[in-house]
Amino acid sequence: MLEYYIPLAILAIIVLVLVASSIYIVKQWEKVAVLRFGQIIGIVDPGLHFRVPIIDSVRKVDMRTQTIDLMGQSAITRDNISLGVDAVVFMKIEDAERIITQIIDYRNAISKYAQTAIRNIVGQYNLDDLLESREEIAIKLKEEIDRLSKEWGIDIARAGLQDISLPEDMKRAFAVQAEAERESRAILIKAQAELNASTKLAEAAKNMEDPIALQLRILSTVNDVSKDQSNTIILALPLETLRAAGIQGVASLSAISKANQQSG
Fold first, then answer.
1. Burial of 263 (0-12, 13-18, 19+ CB in 10 A)
2. What confidence score (pLDDT) does residue 140 get?
C-alpha cells in the first residue's frame, strides 16, 4: 500500500507546484506582457491572472513616472566656453508591448541620447543667452528626446536644467561685472536724489521771499531747537531779517543799541 501512495503524493506535489506557478498578480502600477512560445499574446491589466505553466512566461513593466539624472554633462557654448550642465528627465512608459520588443535597456538609451541632445542644444547658444534661456533650453531638450522615445512607447513628461557650472575665471568675471553694475546704479540713484533735492531747495528759496513764509520758518526753527529746556538759545539775525519777520520790538532795540554805540 505504501508503494501505491508514494507516486500519488509525488504527482500531487507536482500538480500543486504547477498550479501555484500558474497564478500571478499584477499590481496597480504595472502592466504585464504574456509570452507564449516567445511571442506576446496579450497585455494584462492589474489583478489576479493565470498562465499556462512552462509554456507561458510574463514580463512586467512599471508604468509609473521615472526619472533619469544627467549630472555633470560637459558642453561647449557657441562662443567656445566650456561648462557643466546638470539636468533631469521625467519619463513615463505608454506602450508596454513596444518597450519590450523595441528596446533592450530603455533607461540607458534615454540617458545616452539625452547627453548628446544637451551638448547639441548648448552649442547653439552664447553663454549670456544660455543663462537667460534655461526654460527654453529645457523645452528643446524635452522635444528632442521625445522625438526618439516615442518610437519605443515612452513619453517624456518634462526635462529641466538643475544647474549650470561655470569655470572659476568666468565666475570672477561675472562677479566684477555685477559689482560694476551695482556701483553704476548707485551713482545714478545718488545723482537723481541730488537733482530732486536741489529742485526742492530752489522752490523753498523762492517761497522764502514772502515775509510771512520767512517768519513761519523762523518760528518753526526756534520751536524745534527750544524743546530742550537746558539750552539757552541766542539768535544773531540782521535787522532787515527781523523787520521782514515782523519782530519789531527786537529790531527797534537793536537799532537803539547801534545808535548809542555810534554816538559814543
1. exposed
2. 92
Identify the H or E element spanning 154: strand 154-165
Q: What is the mean pLDDT of residues 132-136?
A: 89
Exposure string over 32-45, b if 16+ CB within 10 A, otherwise e: bbbbeeeeeeebbe
Q: What pLDDT digit, counting tens, does each position of 190-249 carry?
A: 888 888 877 876 777 676 666 666 666 666 766 666 666 666 666 666 656 555 555 555
What CATH number is associated with residue 89?
Answer: 3.30.479.30
CA-to-CA distance for 82 and 80, rounded, in angstroms? 6
Query: Which 3 state secondary structure label does DSSP give 223?
Result: helix
Residue 8 is predicted with a pLDDT of: 73
pLDDT in tens, 217-230: 666 766 666 666 66
Q: Does residue 49 sit in the same domain as residue 84?
A: no
Could you tell me if 97 and 139 lie in one domain?
A: yes
Give 149-176 pLDDT, tens digit per residue: 998 999 999 998 888 888 777 767 777 7
114, pLDDT greater than 90? yes
Question: Which of 35, 61, 87 is a domain's end point?
Answer: 61
Give residue for cell 551638448: 119
Interatomic CA distance for residues 26 and 32, integer angstroms? 7
Q: What angle do CA 181, 184, 190 make, to 5 degrees?
A: 140
- CA distance linking residue 176 with residue 51, whole number of Å: 70
Please give the residue range of the domain that contains residue 243: 208-224+236-263
